[in-house]
Each structure stands twice: as C-alpha cells, then as structure tokens.
Amino acid sequence: MIKIVSYKICPFVQRVTAALEAKNIPFEIEYISLKDKPQWFLDKSPNGQVPIMVTESGTTLFESDAIIEYIEDEYDALENDVTNEQRALDRAWSYLGSKNYLVQCGTMSSSDKETFTERSDKLITAFAKMEKQLTNDSTFYKSNALSNVDIAWLPLLHRADIVKKHTGYDFLCGLPKTQAWQETVLATGIAEKTVSEDFEQLFKDFYLTNTYLGEGKDVQQSEGCGTSSCCG
Amino acid sequence: MIKVISCKICPFFQYVTAMLEATNTPYEVEYADFDNCLFELSPNGKAPILITDNKAILFDADAIVNYLDSLYEGQYKPNTKEESSLIEAWANYGSKNYVPQCSTMRSESEAEYQSNLAIFSKSLINVERKLGEYTYFNGEQLSRVDIAWLPILYRSHLIEKHTKVDFLAQYPKVKAWQKVILSLGIAEKSVSSDFEQVFTDFYLSTSYLAK
Q1: Superfamily of domain A2-74
Q2: Which CATH class is domain A84-207?
Q3: Cα A167 to Cα A160, A162, A185, A204, A214, distances in angstroms
Q4: What is the pTM of this model?
Q5: 3 state SS for chain A
Q6: Looking at the partner chain, which of B42, B56, B58 has a beta carbon nearest the beta carbon of A232?
Q7: A230 to chain B: nearest residue by CA?
Q8: Could you tell me what percent of chain B has a pLDDT over 90?
Q9: Which residue of A59, B57, B95, B172 has the lowest C-beta tally within 10 Å?
C-alpha cells in the first residue's frame, strides 16, 4: 500500500492525501515531528521535507507537485482528453495555489497587525486572481466535477474556513465566487477526511494562539480586499 | 512562433529559454519591466509568460517547462512513472532555489548574506549527494533537471568570475556538473546579449558581495 510520511498540519501533505482520497486510492500515513525528524526519514527524504510518498514498488517520491503528477499518471486521471496547453494552464493555476500555502501559513502565524496586513495582502491577491478566473457557470473550478486545480486549492480554502469559524475573519471577503467555490469544495467532505482527527485542535494551538488572529482583537478586513494590483 | 515575455534578469525566464534552446525550438523574446503593465497578461502577475502558436497564454515557469518537455523530443526520457516524478521533483527543487540564490546575491550586510547563503547552500548539499554517477543529472543525456539548475550554475559562475567567491567550492560534484552544463553554450544563448552587464549592475553594485 502507498505510504505517506507527513506532519499533521502540513498543507502540502493535505494536497497529496486529497488527490488520493478523490480517487479512492487506499494509503497509510505516518506522522513525524518536524522539530525532531527521525533518522530513517532523513535517510529517505532527499530534501529533508514532508511529504514523501513511498510507492507500492517501494520508490520514495518527494516534492508534492511531483507526487501529484505521479498520482495523476499512475492511477486513473481525474479528467481525460485535456490538451497540452490546458494541462499547462491547469498546472499553473494549481501551482498558484500551492505556492501560497506558505504565504497563508505566514499570514496566520503573524504576531502583529503590520505583519498580518502585509502578508494577508499577498494571499488575498492570489484569491482575487482566482475570483476573476471563476465563473458562475460551474460549481467547481472548471466544470461541475472536481479537478486537480480544486485539489491544489483545497488546503487554502479549508484553512480559510477554519480561521473564519474561530475568529470571524474571512480571507475571502468581497470575493463571492471564491466563497461559493470554497463551499462546493468543502462540501465534498475531502477536507476533513485528509487530516488527522485532532487537526482542528492542533491548528488552533498552532495558528490561533499567541498570534494576531488569535488575540480576538478586531482584525480588520484588508482594505485591498477584492482588488489586485496589475504588476508582479 | 512561440513568444516569451519577461524581464532580463529573471532566472525563471532563463529556465524557460534554456529549455527552448535545448530542444532547438524557435522562439522570440519580448523584454518588459516589472512595472510595465504587460504583466496584466500574466494571471499570477509574474514573469515569464509564454504565448503558444495557438495564442494561449501560459504562465508559471514550472508549468511552462513541463509543457515544453511534453511537446519536444531530444531530452532524456524517463523509463518509469516514478522516475518521471523524481525528475519533476529535482527540477522543481532547482527552480525553488532561484529566489534563495537571488537573496544571497542581493544581501547588503554580512549577516544577511550568511543567513541567505545557509538556506541556499542546503540545496547544494542535497544535490551534491545525488550527483556523480553520470555526466548529466539523470544519465548521458540532458534532462529537465539539468535545465532547471542551469540558471543557478550559470549565476554562480558569473559571481565567481566577478568576485572570486565560489558558491560551489565545497561541492566538487556540483562543480563538475557546472562545467559540463556551461560547456553546452546554452547558458549564454538563453539570455540577452547584455545580460552580464545587467547582472553585475543588479547584483554587484551595492551588495555585500560587491564589497
């Protein structure tokens, strides 16, 4: 059976487990502590990072983007007959999601307002880009069926939902299409299935304790909410 | 014809153009500044973008190179799906270190330089452990991994040439790899003719390395 080595609140791992879950591929998971990485893990992982995935033939894969490609190649693809160009665009939109995991993590970990605002602006810019991309014609990213882009953004949408639930702050404020998309993606139930049972508590302890978001002050919605600047 | 839009200094741009050079694919380049709203064309607001023959606008260097890799022959082809995933992982690991290398070169103080260098060097340590069996990363044929690391190896070469600081000094296998990759001539062909000047102006005028 496929084995995933992971850290409980890692969004990169959740993207991989969500891809497996979406295709009903069985897997086992082993959690490690990032502060005290076991030697067997360091021997296996080329860059010392989670997730790694050990395939059924025993090869260790790393880098979540590359693991996702393997899952798509080896098991039945979520979508068929995608052109090369469309595949490149889907990848790029997926990467825009996965490249914002650390931005979201940094935003949630901010200890003061200034840092929070600076970091959240970057994250909200990515959501605003997605808002322009989404249409009212489909429930998921590109159709009424789940695609790889939905899975890449699932950890971001899931975490935004937990933050909103506990603090009232909404990263998706002013982005109605993204909010509707978040609801659709979370309604699949994949988000809960792809984290550990104690995830929400760990998440709260990690991000909503001793942080600007966790202090319960009036966290102001960013003024840039819903807007995006034209240049990178 | 394929068109690539970017600013001159960008290593992600060189990742894409080196891939085009390595596959002998004709392309044209348009240079734009970061404050030029041409980047409105880019959904993530970043360079480079590539416009295909069908006028589709592609963005994100990793996604663009993946697209080029699937279109053209002449590159190392993986034997299994697992090997294909590992090629992508090592390639992405290269492009993820463009920014750490850039930050190292841009550092203004010694403390900043040392802390950025420590982050950048981790990737060199990890790639050193992997190299040595073949001429190129995956075998006797160039692969996407070689192309992904080319901007890092080329920039390290320019820094060594102008400052005598060699990022790769402690990594003999990476050093040998650099020599092989630079001997292909792709590095110079995949940047603008005034690149070395643009590079030294950008990285070696006020930085710690320049002093």
Answers
A1: Glutaredoxin (3.40.30.10)
A2: mainly alpha
A3: 10, 8, 21, 10, 7
A4: 0.87
A5: CEEEEECCCCHHHHHHHHHHHHCCCCEEEEECCCCCCCHHHHHHCCCCCCCEEECCCCCEEECHHHHHHHHHHHCCCCCCCCCHHHHHHHHHHHHHHHCCHHHHHHHHHCCCHHHHHHHHHHHHHHHHHHHHHCCCCCCCCCCCCCCHHHHHHHHHHHHHHHHHHHHCCCCCCCCHHHHHHHHHHHHCCHHHHCCCCCHHHHHHHHHCCCCCCCCCCCCCCCCCCCCCCCCC
A6: B42
A7: B40
A8: 80
A9: B172
Report CB contact under 8 Å: A61, B89. yes
Angle, CA A214 vertex, CA A209 and CA A217 arms, to 5°: 145
Which three-class secondary structure state does DSSP give residue B145? Answer: helix
Q: How far is CA A48 from CA A44, A98, B93, B116, in A?
A: 8, 19, 12, 18
C-alpha dihedral sign at B115, A126, A182, A179? positive
| Equal CATH topology for A2-74 and A84-207 | no
Q: How many domains does chain B have?
A: 2
State mean pLDDT over B31-37. 65
Alpha-carbon span B188 to B172, nearest angstrom:
23
In a domain, B209, yes or no: no
Q: Are residues B90 and B126 in the same domain?
A: yes
- B44 at interface of A, judged by CB pairs closer than 8 A: yes
Q: How confident is the model at residue B34 (pLDDT cuts 50, 70, 90)?
A: low
CB contact under 8 A, A92 and B56: no
- The answer to whether B94 and B149 have CB atoms below 8 angstroms apart is yes
Based on the domain organization, do B90 and B64 belong to the same domain?
Answer: no
The string of pLDDT tens digits covering residues B166-210 is: 999 999 999 999 999 999 999 999 999 999 999 999 999 989 998
Q: Strands of B2-6's sheet, edge to edge?
A: B27-31, B2-6, B49-51, B57-59
Tell me the three state secondary structure of residue B185.
coil
Domain membership of residue B166 as a residue range: 81-203
- Is residue B76 domain-resident? no
Residues of B in contact with A84 (CB under 8 A): 67, 70-71
Q: Which two tokens stand for residue B29?
A: 């380049």
Amino acid at A47: N
The pLDDT of residue B64 is above 90: yes
User: Which CATH number is B109's domain given?
Assistant: 1.20.1050.10
